[in-house]
Request: fold
Amino acid sequence: MEVHKHTPKFPLSNFIEHMVYVSGSLPIPYLKELPDGGINLVIELNDNTVNTIYPGESLQQKHEVKRAWISGVQKQAILYKNNTDSSIISVRFTAGGFFCLTKMPITAIDHVGIEAEDLLGNSFRHLYQRIINASGPAEMFALIESYFLQYRVGHSTEHEIIRFIDQNIDKPIDWLVHKSGYSQKHVIHLLKKHTGFSPKYLQRLNRFQLVVKEVQIQKNNIDWFSVVHRYGYYDQAHLIKDFSHFSGISPRDYINSQLAIEANSLVSDMILKLPT
Amino acid sequence: MKPFKIEVPQEVLNDLATRLKQTRWTDEPENAGWSYGTNPDYLRELVTYWQNEYDWRKHEAGINKFPQFKVDIDGVTVHFIYVKGKGQGTLPLILTHGWPDSFYRFLKVIPLLTESFDVVIPSIPGFGFSQQTAMNVDRVADLFNNLMTKVLGYSTYVAAGGDMGSVVTKSMAVQYPENIKAIHLTDVGYPNGTEDWSTMTPEEQAFGQLIQQWFFTEGAFNMIQSTKPQTLGYGLNDSPVGLASWMIEKFYSWSDHDGKIENALTKDELITNIMIYWVTQSINSSIRMYAENARASYMGGLKSSQRVAVPTGISLFPKEAQFPKAWADRMVNVASFSIMKKGGHFAALEVPDLYSKELISFFTNRK
Reply:
């Protein structure tokens, strides 16, 4: 498996966290993408490959996507069927980044797996053609950067507030509201408009991501007792319930998945080995 | 709000035992005593006791006898002890600890206070079993006022504290005078160089000089915790002996014992307090609070630095930095000023009888 990661420079870095190119596949049936508060654009580089998403976790309900799709407002992990002939670029937007660039209302992307061309139109179709004809990942990243730089990337007070809240989401909500200079009602409205989430849900997501990072670093050496208290869980049962809500698996299974496949460290927002 | 009990997994205790056994000791100047910092002989004595005689389970059970809770306030989880007073008409009282102590500072006074008060003892975020989100004292004051009013439903209450707890308590009084009827402090804050010395009395100036001198000889911990806490954190979180050394030096320096620390605090008390930091791995976030306070001070000031208008009771214990009443008047609205005969910076732990009598006398006289 070949993996390349690219982090855009300012000002695009305010809107796009990173892009990851993954080519080749592991012998696994399914994989999962973890939520982190931002929206994900996935571009399939093999023109004829059809990808399958299971929006409700159950294998009964499936949704097929081609070429490129938007993850949508990702409240929980998304389950994908693993394609052996797939090469993808995943563009991970910052919280509120996709909305601020494209001005696409969050209500238009509130479900999983929306074809990018349906949302972004002809301009994206042209981009896609250029990407699949590109010589390698570096050129592909450059094309994607140029494409999104065409959107307005100038100063937006609203986006600055969203970024500030996202970067300080572990602080008390009252304080975040006070710092924003707006009323609580307006801050909640702004967050929903830009990210699709309430401040409370973003806090829970952030806490989940912090635990994920702890597991990735500590793996089997993790001290669950201190993790429970460090991140403000009431007890271990609370942590397990919250972790399962976002990932669909238990923290123990997540550790096992991390230990099972070395490549997991390359694509940290995915679970490559799901429990059987 | 959810009931909470401390139940440290055995593997955490086993890991601690291994680390204590494998301590890589430093060289130690002969007959150093406490003159270079922590006394090597005493630290070794304490660690030997920790390994062979100290029983965490006994102390865990002792803490768990008091009703404890965790609650999400504004997205931050706060751990607290909450003991309703006996009978009717008890005053709600919030007690705020400091560093390097913890909520444990007030454990011994709980039974002495419940005749008169509903006692609330939170862990500051970043400390012990509260979420490890370091924040400045003004933010902590917001959360604790919400704890008292929105969570526990008291429209008015009284507050007391020491060390960082004094600063939090002052901030609560400045920000929420409509809720706080009176506060009690054992220290009121220190000159920091921004005062206009021409307006200070000779006694205040002498106190200012004493504090300046103190910062040069004793204040290095404060400086590093306010500037580069992360540099310090890795060592303290990885070595129980390192953590103990960093903390017990303060307990030695700031408590009232005539040269033998155990005249003020027992080994069990010292170790239990250290254990609260160790098992939760909260030393790093606790010391980061100093940096958060320093940053907030530079970037617009803290509410806790403003003069407190709420009536304030002060008990000045002999091993506390001896501030004159004029200095206290400058910092707070002094309603009572008691000079104590015994006790130090950790009065609630050192002399629980005296400390609790001071609280009862001050607050109940103001009912």
Notes: Chain A touches chain B through 21 residues (CB under 8 Å). The domain at 199-271 of chain A is CATH 1.10.10 (Arc Repressor Mutant, subunit A). Residues 199-218 of chain A form the longest helix (20 residues).
